[in-house]
Amino acid sequence: MLSQVVELIEKKQNFAITTHVRPDGDGIGSSLALYWLLQSLGKNAEVIVRDPIPPSYLLLPGADKIRQVNEIDRHYDAVFVIECSDVERPGIKNLDKQFTVNIDHHVTSERFGRINWIDSTASAVGEMIYNLCKAIGGRITREIAECLYTALVTDTGSFHFSNTTDRTLKVASELVKLGVNPSKISEVVYNSYSWSRIELLRRVLNTVKRDPSGRVAWMRQSLEMMKEAGSSDGDHAGFVNIPLSAKEVKAVVYMRETQPQTYRVSFRSKGNIDVSKVAERFGGGGHKNAAGCRVQGDWDYWENKIVEEIIKEVDSSEAED
């Protein structure tokens, strides 16, 4: 709970902050915002991650201070784990032996922390860190504001997704009043990719298929495609949303090969179609309109099985409308 997080920060001195493998805008933005908050309170803090920071977030204040590690190698009074469904998600060894604080906005998050602050009504963890700043009496500096705005804008799809609420927009408005330049953030986040992203997108879109009704679309990204395009891991960001821009498409499945016969599956949907239910059936989780899971084995088998479940969910949701 928030009160427990405030009490911990007030009593302890040495903290680490981490987020999930292949960090995204909310994970990095929220982690850095918390870092700057702790620094402003006179605490010792650092952000540690296993994977490289995607180029889109390297210009965030404090990004150059992030330390890439494979295991916990220093003493901390507590480790804040940002936007992770379980303690394994950051991919850092010995994290499970630490005093962990689980801060997440996914309702499917496991309660793995010694302190678990879960708020499924928040659009992003960035919104929660904003509330923490207010609760602890910290001043929201320009650095904190820019990091929080990045967290919000990325996890809401530039305020397009259904998790955008009046509270989200009020927080964003406050951050702009504090000096955030929305066009600058959007330029850095969305218009600073390498040409390899275009090459990868061309290959991925060539795999797009739809079911006979046209309501469900799915596509693939293989390791071979990445090699051919000369792309890095973060180049795929946002691909899953492209088929969803078609009026008739209600849900999208995006299977991305991360290792031979190992796939990261992303789901997106519109309206009342709850793709998190499908993700949970395959050991994953997420939000109503944005979720994911991991599977291993034969690509065709899993694609057929997952698409079949998504079609059932679309049929069920539309029958209820």
- What number is the mean pLDDT? 93
Strands, total number: 12
Number of helical stretches of at least 4 residues: 10
Q: Helix proportion of residues, in percent? A: 25-40%
Main sheet summary: 6 strands, parallel
Terminal CA distance:
36 Å
C-alpha geometry: globular
Structural class: alpha/beta
N-to-C series of helices and strands: HEHEEEEEHHHHHEEHEEHEEH
Report the C-alpha radius of gyration, rounded: 19 Å
Folded structure, characterized:
This protein is α/β, with parallel strands linked by helices. The protein has helices at 2-11, 25-40, 125-136, 142-155, 166-177, 182-190, 195-205, 223-229, 275-281, 299-320, and strands at residues 14-19, 44-49, 67-68, 78-82, 100-104, 115-118, 209-210, 216-221, 251-259, 262-269, 285-286, 290-296. The strands form 2 sheets. Strands 3-2-1-4-5-6 form a 6-stranded parallel β-sheet, with helices on one face. Helix 3 (125-136) runs antiparallel to helix 4 (142-155). The protein is globular, with a radius of gyration of 19 Å.
Short recap of the structure:
The protein is an alpha/beta fold and 321 residues long. The protein contains 10 helices and 12 strands.
Write the layout of secondary structure elements.
Layout: H1 2-11, E1 14-19, H2 25-40, E2 44-49, E3 67-68, E4 78-82, E5 100-104, E6 115-118, H3 125-136, H4 142-155, H5 166-177, H6 182-190, H7 195-205, E7 209-210, E8 216-221, H8 223-229, E9 251-259, E10 262-269, H9 275-281, E11 285-286, E12 290-296, H10 299-320
Parallel strand pairs: 1-2, 1-4, 2-3, 4-5, 5-6, 8-9
Antiparallel strand pairs: 7-8, 9-10, 10-12, 11-12
